[in-house]
Amino acid sequence: MSEGPEVPLARLREVTELLLAHAERAGASVTLEHDLFWEVPPEQRHDPGHEPTGLTLGALSESWAQLSAMADDPDRVVGYGLVWLADVLRALGHQSIG
User: pTM of the entire structure?
Assistant: First the structure.
């Protein structure tokens, strides 16, 4: 397998802020259309040569609850929060808001 791109975190922050500002044109908050989603096991997500097995269900409400808890108490911040953030951002992007 090939290695992925190098992502400068400052640039990622810049584009994230641009995208959120774009989304905010639709309003200060958004109600996501769905809660449950299929979760592909991490070790299978980037293996296009094999169909994933062992799918599980995720819940956007749970991802958002974890993110909100970290915002309320920064001592609770964990790296896995980026996965929860990705869950919410993916759902937001699929709703085509803004």
Answer: 0.89
